[in-house]
Amino acid sequence: MAQRWSISNALRGMFQRETITDETWDDLETALITADFGPDIAEEVVEALRADVDRLVIDDPRELKRMLRERLEERFAAYDPTLTLQERPAVILVVGVNGVGKTTTIGKLARLLASHGQSVVVGAADTFRAAAVEQLATWAQRAGVELVRPEREGQDPASVAFQTVERAKTGDIAMCIVDTAGRLQTKGGLMDELGKIRRVVEKQAPVSEVLLVLDATTGQNGVAQAQAFIEHAGVTGLVITKLDGSAKGGFVLAVQERTGIPIKLIGQGEGIDDLTGFTPHVFVEQLVG
Ligand SMILES: Nc1nc2c(ncn2[C@@H]2O[C@H](COP(=O)(O)OP(=O)(O)OP(=O)(O)O)[C@@H](O)[C@H]2O)c(=O)[nH]1
Prior knowledge:
The protein has 289 residues and is of the alpha/beta class.
């Protein structure tokens, strides 16, 4: 079954026509804009394909579909989606606004890494809500990985992050994932706190990845969120969650190009196995059909 965020249905009529006409181009641009690529990218893609079709004297819409896949894949693949986890321990900080899916993503990522034979410890540096710690504890248990909890409610999140990395070092644990409290990108004090967490962790070990989690259903607003986090937390990769509930597959490309930060992981469900790496070829196959 096609993903909800796929544009294959929107394109169906277009590829059922015998030849490429003006309507073909209008339909394509509308499909791209509807999928939240944003008007600029939609126009660029249409213009580039139009030029190719004219130059190569093509009139078969099926050929155009192949060219659309190629062009999108080239744009998606302009950034390296590989997680950089060579350090020992490899420290991953996970940041983002409230409710985007940080804790869920950590549970899934811990499971993914553990299933590849890595030892993992997760740290509950979201110390404001006891429920947040318990939620992470449940995920850690499901993933079969160790957890470092705050010693008391309201403990400085940076100190929990520090203790988590310390635990990884003393226990010879390869991967260390630190959960942080959700925060609005407009709250300066809370954004500064992220910088502090990072500096404190770096006293123990270099930070390998700072992953910013974005909810695909927020669309272009996610770009504004991303920019503030990039400024304050030194984001190295994006995680797009809730793509399963979104009709906005194009958001993935828009946010990557506008922030210049690669998409590294994709979440498509609430289950522990619903997280994958980002593979442009596979993604575009599903997107275009
Ligand atoms: N459908 C779907 N739901 C998701 C996905 N990822 C997370 N969720 C749901 O989103 C909700 C919020 O997820 P959390 O992991 O608690 O989000 P958070 O960012 O840690 O939240 P705060 O700690 O409050 O900032 C939960 O109901 C999750 O089940 C996803 O990929 N798909």
